[in-house]
Structures are given as C-alpha cells and as structure tokens.
Amino acid sequence: MINPVTELIDFGRAALLRPVPRDHWQEPSQVLRRRIVAAVTLVVGAVFLWYSLRIPAGDPAFYGWTLALAAVWIVGAFASGPLHLGHAWTRSGGVGRPIVQSLALAALITGVFLAGAVVVAQIPPLRGPVDALLDHARFGSLPLVWVITTINGIGEELYFRGALFAAVGRRHAVSISTVVYTLTTVGTGIPLLVLAAFMLGLLCGLQRRVTGGVLGPTLVHCLWSSSMLFLLPPMLDVLG
C-alpha cells in the first residue's frame, strides 16, 4: 500500500533537495562575463519593472513596457552565456526532463496562494494593492495580458534562475538569487507581490539547484502565474 506521507516526503527530496549529477563547469572568464552582464541586466530590468507596474490599468502603454521588460530579461540571460534545460529525478530513480515534477510543484504553490487569498480578501490594506495589480487583467485584454505574463515568466526564469544563478556560483546561489528577485519587486509598493516573489523565487531556486537548468523553474513560474491570472480575480470577487 502506498503511504501518501512517504510519497510526499520522497517527492520533496527529489524535487527540491537532491541535485541531479551534471557538469556545468565555467572558466573564470565566463563567470566574470556572466556577472557583468547579469549586473547590467538587473539594473535595467528593475527600472522597467518599477515603471511598468505604475502604469494605470487599461493603458495600452502597459503592454509595451512589460514586453520590453521581458526582452531585457531574455536578452540579458542569453548574452551572459550558455543556459541549460536541466534534468529531474524520475520515480524509478532515473532522470528525465522536469515536466511532471514541475506540474506538481506548480499545483502545490498555486494551492497555497489561493488558500492565502481567502485571508487577504478580508484585509483591505492587503487586498487593495492586489486588486489594483489584477485590474490590468480585469480592464485590459485578458488573452493579451496572459501572453505577456507568460513571456515575462519565461524571461524572469531565464535571467534569475539562469544567468544570475550561474553568475553567483554554486555557493549561496539559491539564497542570493531569491533575495535579488524579491528585492526587484519592493519598488512596486505591493507587499503581497514581494511575498509572492520570495516564495516563488525560493521554490524555483531550489528546483534550479536540483535540476541544473531553467526548464523546471520556467514551467512552475508560468503555470503559477497563469493560475493566479485566471483564478485569483474571480475568487476575490466571490469572497467580496
């Protein structure tokens, strides 16, 4: 008989704690290049993010600025050096692409955030900024916002769990990339967005360390952000 608790513990270890063997050695010159490119990209990206989230809901300029932000992350990531897709442990003990693992992690973090929304809905100081952010989907083109959100999710993971993670090096890469990712959202003035960035960044950082690549974190990020975009607004409306 399958023990659900044991299965969950084993999954957590395989997905977030036990790295898959790989050899991604970088020459000192490659590390220096990554760090320079990553630093420049971070400054430019943080400015673009700060400005784009201050554009009023329904303003067409929001689409252009957020696409430009995605371009900053993507160009900076690939300019920094090679990126890897990564591999994950399978149930049988082998390795494969982190598809199923990412689906499970995305479902887990989505469930946590939707549960938290029940509390947030009852606290006006917290709900107000969240509603303002979601108004881009309510009053704009939802399909277009989804496409842009997905592209930005891909760009952020290519940069933060790709270029920046590799630039930091093996020691403290998870903590440093998570802190930097979180700090880029502080300027938005939305406390729950900062918290979301920390939780998502930590989860994706741990998965990046295990898989050695950006595919898993990118899938988790995009699935989570899509779920928040489509499920959170109606849920908050129902909760009043």
TrEMBL record:
Highest rank taxon of the organism: Bacteria
Key words of the record: Membrane, Transmembrane, Transmembrane helix
Record-given protein name: CAAX prenyl protease 2/Lysostaphin resistance protein A-like domain-containing protein
One MF annotation (Gene Ontology) recorded for this entry: endopeptidase activity
GO process annotations (BP): CAAX-box protein maturation
Start and end residues of each CAAX prenyl protease 2/Lysostaphin resistance protein A-like domain: 141-225
Native organism: Mobilicoccus pelagius NBRC 104925
Transmembrane segments: 36-53, 65-83, 103-124, 179-202, 214-232
Keyword Cell membrane listed: no
Coiled coil regions in record: none
